[in-house]
Amino acid sequence: MDKFSDYALRILISLTAHAPGKLSVSHIARMYGISENHLAKIATQLSKGGFVVLERGRGGSLTLAVPAVNISIGTVLRSLKKDEPVAECFGANTSCAILPACGLRGPLLEAQEAFFAALDGYSLTDVAKAKGCLKDLLAV
């Protein structure tokens, strides 16, 4: 998992811990010590994916678009990673010399799907069970 996905999940967990309240991107950035500009880009992707409602402008904020119990971690990560190939041979511009004879594509695809499938069984509610403790840890 990359930083983009990690930070996206942090945003969602923060919103879950503070639900039904709203949080600004700047507040979440301070909670984690992460660049506000970077989190704003991630929040936009989460909004496009239908996971958060993004209110722009001064005093703008984020809220969960649907109840946390209805947001699976696997679905979030699939949404964020759908355009990123696991390996070059899954992309449009491949230059791998062994592609015609390589048997790695099938196992890589199977492993990627197993990763997402395992995470499909967990909702935001599952990973944010310690809501009170999370709020304390994220207090700014």
Give a brief rundown of this model:
This protein is mainly alpha-helical and 140 residues long. It has seven helices and two strands. Strand 1 and strand 2 form a beta hairpin.
Alpha-beta classification = mainly alpha
Large-scale geometry: elongated
Rounded average pLDDT: 88
Share of residues in strands: 5-15%
| Gyration radius from CA atoms, angstroms | 17 Å
The number of helical segments is 7
Percent range of helical residues? 40-55%
Main sheet specs: 2 strands, antiparallel
Order of strands across the biggest sheet?
Answer: 1-2
Low-confidence regions: none
Distance between the termini: 27 Å
- What is the number of beta strands? 2
Give the SSE order as H and E letters.
HHHEEHHHH
